[in-house]
User: What shape does this take?
Amino acid sequence: MQLLFFVLVTLQAHHVIIAILAILVIVVSLFYFSRNRLIQSLKVDEISHLMSFTRFMQKADKLLTKTNERYVLISVNMVRFRYINYLYGPEIGNKILGLFGATVLSSIDKKKEYATRQASDRFLVLLRYRHNEDFEITMANFYKKFEVAAKTYCSFEIIIHCGVYVMKKNENIHRALEKATHALSYADDYYQPQFVFYTHTMNEEIEQARMIDQEFSTALKERQFAAYYQPKVDIVSGLVLGAEALVRWHHPIKGLLTPGQFLPRLEKNGMIKQIDLYMLDTVCQDIRRNLDEGRLVVPVSINFSATQLYDQDLLRKIKDIIEPYQIPHYLIEIEITEGVAVKATHEVKNLLRDLKAYGLRICIDDFGTGYSSLAVLCDIDADVLKLDRSFLDKNDNLERQRAVLRATVDLAKDIGM
Assistant: This one.
């Protein structure tokens, strides 16, 4: 009996060992399979079958440091590609991306020219360059070839935009990518193929953007930004009834920079929110000083960007800035454009109500430029309405213009503005 028990235990242990070994074999196999898939994905994009972006940048950088030939880097975007995924499904969308990759591969010298899918429907192509005429012919032939092939998958016209940068010899691939991408941003016709070449003007814009990104934080700390006040004057009495705070940048090297030179970049990189709050703090300081010195004090409007209004913590931040200065709340006017007001979500509308309940004034700027102006007046309880200058532009029908202007002013008065 004991012998039988020993044999059974031995057999069970033997089976357990075999099972453990089998599991280890499976785990090791899966590990190597996943590892090989990972290595392969680092080399080749599974959808387009082009080399991966990382490998493209490495090979391009290596090639450009050795060659004496000139190259052109092309940043390619398939315009409205999301509609293809929506109409035909992502499977067809992926097939079209794969078709684009195959068309590129069949059109280039794989030893001296490279291509990759950068992300989603964005591609990069590195080609040898001779002159613009040859390049444009090559691209036109390529586009026609791809367009014909794509018709086998969908009838939707696929529009391609290209940002083109003709590189200098031995130029860094990362800088070239930045310039090609910048050129692509100038392609704005959504219904026609476009090839936009990078120019020296664009180079100045890139340098300006880089300067803003690098120096903005320091400029804030050193208070290089200043508020310039534009008065609001009663045209009958001539009295100053209010003012608008306009931001200017006193750059230590470039001198005085106007909003158009830096605000668009701050809107793009998200730093505009810091400027809004900075200007609020600056205005509060100036109002407090004028009150202390017995000077004339009038309500001051401060422009707030669209992105700022979606900050769920904005009301607290505004209170934290205003409270230490102990100034009457009605002297602060939050100004938004009509475009922002039209697109305002339920949360934004609630925020504006809370700001008004706190005692601040709400101003809608550029009124009359949108398509839903009257709806905006119903949804947002604003205190001030600033009419767009187009109301005052000269035209052939002056009487009609006056009637519209008069009716708008009367409407604003009737609702308490």
Observations:
- The longest strand covers residues 240-251.
- The longest helix spans residues 2-43.
